[in-house]
Design a protein that fits this description.
By secondary structure, the protein is an alpha+beta fold. It contains 20 helices and eight strands. The protein folds into two domains: 373 residues, no CATH class; 141 residues, Immunoglobulin-like. It comes from Dyadobacter luteus.
Length: 562
């Protein structure tokens, strides 16, 4: 009965996570996603030959050769004639579940009941790594490379020469999914060295150099890289990358670094155990532990490379990498179940389930507001792109630089976003016929100074109102409407208000505070005077329109409210 209940709970957690990702996903590109549009637009030229298409497929972008994501886009384009970014996010969710299945397979080797694995589900399936689950290209790169790595480890454990070939193919695919994918080879080398299969370890090393040679053909350096500026940032990035599961609370860098060190020490102790018994023919590790330790080695080397080449810009504790910390935490938990009998006691298990469930709920509370705002930005840009060929989810220079392929891709149907949440005719009608506000909205601007770095914005602006309109239901969408009377053009921006206090959420069931909040870069809009309104759209499509009694002015690169 307990086993069946645990399986039912596990299924519900995974289903909830998948449904959550699907609800908040939008068929709309973000930043690096433009790469897929550019690739398909380029190869759609009928004058290109097979070699030209292959060269485009292996082209370097930001230090990575995203061959596998490009190939997926190519297959979809051949089959459907367009690109669907929501489909790519579905693939990301499938990969995330598959990676967890690999972890589950290693847990099953402990022979413990399924309910001992419940804490792992709560610690893994949550929106901490929302930049992976909600960003198509970034998500495909990190999840496919990890999925290829764990599959390679599965094949490595099957001992046959054919399985070795399949493992090498997986590592090769990982390499051409994301630049860090080549680090899957050292994980296999570690695995084979631990079982004293030096022949296969040597073959893997040779395959790694071959892959590296192919990778460097036509390689072009993209992002700026240099060594860390100080040891503290490097150490924080190295171990915080692995331990940032605890980044939900204060002192993020400190606690993430400490937890990362604890996880690494657990792995190091197991390595010492292997070395101590290395001359014996019998394995010194329990079943499944070597596979998990090899995956942890992959994560550590990945963290090391990123810390060496990226920590100069600041700590690498960021959502786009935090799938790795969730994997590391689950690996650590399985280590504890294997080697510390204390964690097999029922009372300790109940405590772990309670703690992990609290963490799971707190992660959804902390990040759902961020995830919802991203969805709203993309939804608003469906309107902005259709009617004004603008986007506010990305900086204006990025969109302008991409215009040479975005515009023809849209005309050719390669980039074919769905219909916006509301039409311009409806917005114009609401602006014209809705009554003027009889209440003062107390709208104000906040300015975030960013400094004066070359090529970057000096400041950001936040237009907010804390009282009106009243709070919006969780599943309703709130947009800030900007209308330029001089041109007749209108724009939508995410207008979601701030998240309520935990006490209010629990006692009153209100997730959002009253009012609204919208983010502006200095060049988001053209100079002018904009009328403001709030548009609420519920899941049934019913709309409520609130005119705001103030205007937004953009003059000399600065915003003002009057």
């Amino acid at each position: 009965m307990k086993e069946k209940l645990a399986l039912a709970v596990s299924f519900l957690i995974i289903l909830l996570y998948a449904s959550y990702n699907y609800f908040f996903s939008v068929n709309f590109p973000f930043q690096d996603d433009f790469l897929l549009i550019q690739f398909i637009q380029t190869i759609s030229d009928e004058s290109l030959g097979a070699w030209d298409i292959l060269r485009e497929l292996f082209k370097t972008f930001n230090d990575h050769k995203a061959v596998v994501p490009r190939f997926i886009a190519l297959v979809e384009y051949v089959l459907t004639g367009t690109l669907n970014f929501r489909f790519y996010l579905f693939l990301v969710t499938v990969n995330i579940i598959y990676i967890f299945y690999f972890l589950y397979l290693q847990f099953r080797k402990t022979k413990l009941p399924v309910y001992y694995f419940l804490p792992a589900l709560f610690l893994y399936f949550h929106p901490l790594y929302h930049d992976i689950s909600g960003w198509a290209l970034n998500g495909m790169q990190h999840t496919f490379l990890t999925a290829f790595t764990v599959t390679a480890l599965i094949f490595a454990g099957r001992k046959s020469n054919f399985s070795l070939v399949l493992a090498i193919i997986c590592c090769f695919l990982a390499t051409f999914t994301h630049g860090n994918g080549i680090l899957s080879y050292p994980a296999l080398v570690f695995y084979f060295l631990c079982i004293k299969d030096f022949r296969k370890a040597g073959i893997i090393v040779l395959a790694m150099f071959v892959s590296f040679g192919v990778y460097m053909m036509g390689y072009e350096s993209g992002q700026a890289t240099h060594l860390p500026d100080d040891a503290v940032t490097f150490i924080t990035s190295l171990f915080g990358f692995i331990g940032s599961q605890v980044s939900l609370w204060g002192d993020v860098e400190l606690w993430s670094t400490l937890f990362g060190i604890v996880i690494c020490i657990s792995g190091l102790l197991l390595v010492f155990r292997i070395v101590k018994h290395y001359k014996r023919n019998k394995s010194s590790l329990k079943p499944g532990v070597l596979e998990l330790l090899s995956l942890l080695v992959f994560i550590f080397i990945t963290s090391l490379v990123i810390a060496v080449f990226r920590s100069w810009a600041g700590t690498t504790i960021t959502s786009r990498f935090q799938l790795y910390t969730c994997m590391s935490t689950v690996i650590f938990y399985i280590f504890l179940l294997n080697y510390l009998p204390l964690f097999r006691k029922r009372l300790v298990l109940v405590g772990m389930i309670g703690i992990s469930m609290f963490y799971w709920l707190y992660s959804f509370y902390s990040y759902t507001g961020i995830v919802a705002k991203k969805r709203m930005e993309y939804q608003a840009d469906l309107y902005n792109w259709l009617y004004t060929r603008t986007m506010f989810s990305v900086p204006r220079p990025l969109l302008e630089n991409a215009d040479f392929y975005m515009a023809p891709a849209y005309e050719n149907g390669i980039f074919s976003p769905p219909a916006p949440p509301v039409s311009k005719q409806v917005v114009d009608s609401l602006i014209k016929h809705s009554p003027e506000s009889v209440e003062h909205y107390e709208t104000y601007l906040e300015v975030m100074e960013l400094g004066n770095k070359p090529g970057e914005y000096e400041r950001y602006y936040f237009l907010s109102g804390c009282k009106l309109p009243s709070f919006k239901p969780f599943f309703a969408d709130r947009y800030l409407v900007l209308w330029d009377p001089a041109t007749g053009e209108s724009y939508l921006k995410n207008g979601t208000s701030k998240v309520e206090a935990r006490k209010v959420i629990i006692t009153e069931g209100k997730y959002y505070k009253p009012g609204f909040s919208a983010f502006f870069r200095p060049d988001d809009l053209r100079p002018g005077t904009y009328r403001l309104a709030i548009l609420d759209i519920d899941p049934k499509g019913e709309m409520v329109f609130h005119k705001i009694d103030q205007h937004l002015l953009l003059r000399d690169g600065a915003y003002y409210v009057e």
